[in-house]
Amino acid sequence: MGWLWAIIVGFVLGLIAKAVIPGKQHSPLWLTTIFGMLGAIAGNAIARAAGVAATPGIDWTRHIFQLVAAIIIVFLGDMLYMATLGKRRHRV
Fold it and tell me: pTM of the full predicted structure?
């Protein structure tokens, strides 16, 4: 069940990150989901390093760290995608 939640959270974080970033992102939805999953993992690690412990209820601080990490990873990942595979697909 942990992998299913990771995919769902990655999907949601990736879509929110795409909505926040100005302009059009060209990376496919499956790649955006992976970027969101990486953002969730990085955000958890940063929150743990910052001393944010698990709290009862909704842990908003940890979710903010996850969202910011996902935005950065989606932005950089889309730039990398366009620099490598994206140009070839959009030329055809």
Answer: 0.84
